[in-house]
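Fold this: AraC family transcriptional regulator
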Amino acid sequence: MNQTILDFVMIASVIIGYFVSISLITTSFYKSRANNYLALSLFSMASLTLIEWLSINVSSVIVEILLLFRLDFLFAAALFTYFIIQIKHPLLKNKWYKWIYLPFIGSVILEFSLYLLDLYGTIYDVLVFYLKDIASISFNIFLIFWSRKLLRNSTSISENKRHWLLRLNLFVICLIIILILNRVELHLLDSLYSAYVLWIFMSLFLWWILYYGVFRLQVIDQKEEIHNYLVSKKSADTPIKKKIRSSTTSKIITQLYKLMEDEELYKDPLLSRLDLATRLDTSEGYLSQIINQEINKSIIQFVNEYRIEEAKNLLQDPVFNKYSIEAIGMEAGFKSKSAFYNTFNMSLNMSPGAYRKLQKTS
């Protein structure tokens, strides 16, 4: 692959890393304690990439000084802290967990000692270099697999959130594997080809973080906040029930309304015709037939009516103005943003965003 293209990919990944890091700590939508540590880990990764690239292409005292900072230790510690904050792990209450930042501080002190004592190029420099490489990789492996175990065993987060965090964890494991291959190639073959592979993978990783990962997780968090608020208010508020037409005498239809209004089954994005038929102890075909005969709607139309009403209530309530429209759609029971927008448009001839603005001005 052309050297210029590889350099461009590397620079692009660094810029993305810095952009995502700054966005996480300055944008109100993303701002949180957990994201502060995610920003620190991404900033460390981007800086580490930039410094290593500069060390290959630029000969400078400044670059040599920057190399003293072993940011791979900081990356691992910050990312581990991010994971335990996300799952609200009891470790956060123990101040000793902050000792995981000690390897980073120790490595900086050690490097400055070598620099000030003018020991670079001696046997001590070589020994410290190999020891820190081994320690860095071991430290990263230990923390990433420990955090993976904590994520799998956590009972304080939803399955959606666990799935995203485990996927992020897997990406980092792949990064560490490529990093190990890079170190082996560097020490045994004196080659840097895998370094470019590492930078390309890091670029893809940062793009995923930017366009899918962080935003999606924030929507999930907002959805959970909305849900918890509604649950806390549920006992105090009297739910609005639909009036059953006098002509609707079927026991199944009465039970169906009860399931929708008392158990809010429509909020399950995976709710299927089979699920409803099973709960009502009837067949799918008969359920579709009786809903069509007595309510003159299909099952999906009937369920989506409840979802739209729930979304409308949330969109017009000022309490939920700080939450994204996608999070509100998820809480109402829609599986995806596109499904929510399409159904809302078909029902009200306007987008959820336009409806929210209309409620603010009225």
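The chain has two domains: 3-228, 238-361. DSSP finds 15 helices and no strands in the chain.
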